């Protein structure tokens, strides 16, 4: 569990995003295409509760969840510098894979990306009352990476 920058916090789990990727620079078996059902745990903080008494109304995260689904549900993730990118694009064009090009497909970079997406939504919607201060990106029950930071624009004092 992460430590909240404010007295009020909550967390939300998102799961069921089967996708595949490869780490082409890896010297071991991770250089091969392999898949996981990714899941994400996000931690939110607020300077105060909303009118309903929530840090974050989870039903308001549907656009965020749709973004996760579009990026990770039955997709093939590849690094932007993968030397086989043209081949992956060809397979995408043939509708053999649903390609998503990322700066880095690793779980650490994915956790940071999810953190950025969540904070873009929260800052725009809540005007600084809420933030995401941590993301756990999990590829399976044994392996996860965490990114945690308080956005510079968030003030715990409100």
Give a written overview of the molecule.
With 158 residues, the protein is of the alpha/beta class. The protein has 3 helices and 6 strands, in the order ββαβαβαββ. The two termini are 23 Å apart.
Helix content: 25-40%
Q: Structural class given helices, strands, pairing?
A: alpha/beta
CATH superfamily: 6-pyruvoyl tetrahydropterin synthase/QueD
Return the string of H and E elements. Answer: EEHEHEHEE
Please mark out the parts with pLDDT under 50 across 5 or more consecutive residues, or reply none.
Answer: none
E-strand count: 6
Q: What integer value in Å does the Rg equal? A: 17 Å
Silhouette? elongated
Strand order of the largest sheet: 4-3-1-2-5-6
| Continuous helix count | 3
Beta-strand residue fraction? 25-35%
Average pLDDT number: 96
**The CATH topology is what?**
Tetrahydropterin Synthase, Chain A
What's the CATH class, please? Alpha Beta
Q: How would you sum up the major sheet?
A: 6 strands, mixed
User: If classified by CATH, what would the architecture be?
Assistant: 2-Layer Sandwich
Compact summary:
By secondary structure, this protein is of the alpha/beta class.
Topology:
Blueprint: E1 8-21, E2 34-46, H1 62-72, E3 75-79, H2 85-93, E4 99-102, H3 107-126, E5 130-138, E6 144-148
Parallel strand pairs: 1-3, 3-4
Antiparallel strand pairs: 1-2, 2-5, 5-6
Primary descriptors:
single chain; 158 residues; Tetrahydropterin Synthase, Chain A; six-stranded mixed sheet; 3 helices; 6 strands; elongated
